[in-house]
TrEMBL record:
Record GO terms (molecular function): cysteine-type peptidase activity
InterPro entries found in the cross-reference section: Peptidase_Prp, Peptidase_Prp_sf
Highest taxon, organism lineage: Bacteria
Assigned protein family: Belongs to the Prp family.
Keywords annotated in UniProt: Hydrolase, Protease, Ribosome biogenesis, Thiol protease
GO terms of biological process kind: proteolysis; ribosome biogenesis
Name of the protein described by the UniProt record: Ribosomal processing cysteine protease Prp
């Protein structure tokens, strides 16, 4: 199962996210859940880097299926939109494939 933790402040501002694990929906190379989650997360990080001037820290652990993003406080509306879009997409996948993806929110 892929576990995604969305880190947010008490005011609801997203501080970042982490994801770990493999979906296990299908064999490697054929797992649509893993592919969908990976594309959403990687595209979010790449889009924040390409389309905004916001500062963040990101780390990838390909072996364990891990990705971590930490946003610096005071980021732009563009980054907020991209992060909100990521969450919307992840929650949509979670609704359909709840045995393979778990999205949780953690206050930081």
């Amino acid at each position: 199962m892929i576990k995604v933790t969305i880190y947010q402040s008490s005011e609801g501002e997203i501080a970042g996210f982490s994801m770990q694990g493999h979906a296990g929906y299908a064999a490697r190379g054929s797992d649509i859940v893993c592919a969908a989650v990976s594309v959403l997360a990687q595209n979010t990080v790449n889009s924040i880097e390409h389309f905004t001037q916001d500062s963040f820290t990101a780390d990838v652990d390909e072996e364990n299926g891990g990705l971590y993003l930490k946003m610096e406080p005071g980021y732009s509306k563009g980054s907020k939109l991209l992060l909100d879009s990521l969450i919307l997409g992840l929650q949509g996948i979670e609704e359909e494939y709840m045995d393979y993806l778990d999205v949780i929110f953690e206050e930081v």
